[in-house]
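Notes, p. 3: input format for complexes.
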Amino acid sequence: MNKALFGRMLHGGDYNPEQWLDRPEILAADREYFRRMHINTVSLGMFSWAVLEPCEGVFNFDWLVQIIDALYAAGVSVIMATPSGARPKWLADAYPEVLRVDAERRRTLFGGRHNHCYTSPVYREKVKIINTEIVRCVGRHPAVLAWHISNEYGGECYCPLCQEAFRSWLAARYGTIDKLNDAWQTVFWSHVYTDFSQIEAPSPIGEHALHGLTLDWKRFVTARTADFASFEIETIRAAGSDKPATVNMMYDYAGLDYERFAGTVDIISWDNYPPWHKTEEKITALDAAMQHDYMRSLKKAPFLLMESCPSATNWQAVSKLKRPGMLLASSLQAVAHGADSVLYFQMRQSRGASEKFHGAAIDHWGGETRVMNEITDVGLALESLGAVCGSTVHAAAAIIMDRESRWAMEDAAGPRNAGLKYKALFTRIYNGLRRGGAAVDIISEERDISAYRIVAVPMAYMCKPGFAEKLRAFVSSGGTLVVSYWSGIVDEYDRCCLNGTPHGLTDVLGLRSCEIDALYDGEQNAAIPVAGNALGLTRRYVCDTLCDVVDLCGAMPVLTYTDDFYAGRAALTFKQFGAGTAWYIGALFEEELFSDIFCRLVTTAGAAQPYAMRLFGGSSVPEGVGVTTRENDDAAYVFVQNFNRFSLCLPSKVLPKGASVLYGTYTGSLAPLETLVFAFSKT
Ligand code: GAL
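Output follows (683 residues plus beta-D-galactopyranose):
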């Protein structure tokens, strides 16, 4: 059952009217510009605590009520934030325990934002009071659509309260100290603990090389933060609001395992700031597409694009303007991948402080601008895409991306401390699947994979309990599995797996990884096809970074290495297992190999997007083109976007049978940054 989140595509963004309360003419002008730009929603209150509660227990909400009334009268809805992302000075002064302690055990001074302890009972109490007051004063206002809980949760606190909470968390996880010692293998370097009270969080001035400790600390930080988010949502519910709640997440943020927030929030949302034009747009677009897919996959449901920049940020190394049409293409890419909103940071540029030069819908000049026209184009596009609201992407392909596994892999001193190039491998696999026409979910090892037709497992270093069994069942019942080197190496505690790797899969893959060779930067090997190989490959492919040396026990070689002492050994293999097939990629190959493999496998596995394939007629999707289908019970909406710097022809000059154009003009070709949306009726 597909459910529209809000019945319309949201268009707007972060709005901070508290910075302009002495300038009512500016606030009135804002509303007029909102109307012209087709803005229908703003997010309010992210950093308003000091204005809402200027002194402890003294509340000042009249301005907020007036602002919301005026916005509502102007047809603008509100996503209301809780202000816990930055606390007022009085709170830090009166209760120093709310200030964070850093990894070197220094308590920080007041300043910045995202700088409070998630464990502090005082902080929780004060957050509860202000959240309750917000719900009481504006929570039932008809303009309020949803709750924006805090802002970009992140960071860590090492204060005594957090340390104690960490020890209790460990005691609950392990039960006995012996189990913890075994899990962390503390006998190495004589680091054995005799009591939970002896444990200290990792620190550069203390223990920082015990991988089990570091991994559990990261898990604990996520658990603490998710617990704080749940606590905030409970304060909203207890105060009487049942509007949906979200937390805005960040791009590939390594500080938290967002998987643990999926059950806590009602809607996933995230903040998207790609460095457009730093390199070719098609490269940036591929990266942004992956992140959208990851966010959508967290709940397998429509999500919100909570922030994006209408022009240039002020915090990137080079804050480049978006070229004409880039905002529209980037915004519609989010919608293509499942967003039911395009929201910006920020509606009006602040006059001072650290973000005064950050791009905004309304700038310091305060008049009509080029950027406003670009935003209006997005507003109009979203209005014509109203039917797409609530539909979602049904992917037949999945890539496993497990944050805990990445934490462990990146912390381990191993074959290549100069960089494992996980992201490069991941991107090449993702690109291959997309070129083959598949829509892709990005999911953790813990998720169900039974409904996919093809599952790729790049560098799944950690093999969590049940993961290998799940992959085995998937292949045996007909799935196509592709596993890469450096998979199935350790268990969930980061202890090495004994008796052969990839753990639990040696018979499925028909091989055992014996040794892995690390290559210096600039060093290469290559592989050549075996005659009559299962993929019909005919050319030589270069590889670098890591080269796995495997012993075959049932797998068929597809490519073999050309160089070094392992020349002639298998570098890409295939095995039939049950009703399915299992493939093993032994090295970080050049991009073309991934397109060659996955275009073939997506077709044979039947994993291509069916409606989209009517447009592309079974051929692969051209490089730089994004094709994504959102569906509901009534229709399939196929988004086609050209992120190349040149125009390209669509395979058919004629609209396929049953299709209509929902957005754009179908001429048989696509200009750079052009988007077309086709609707296929299912009824
Ligand atoms: C986000 C943050 C916003 C604003 C924006 C600037 O990470 O949530 O408050 O700072 O960056 O790009």
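DSSP finds 17 helices and 25 strands in the chain.
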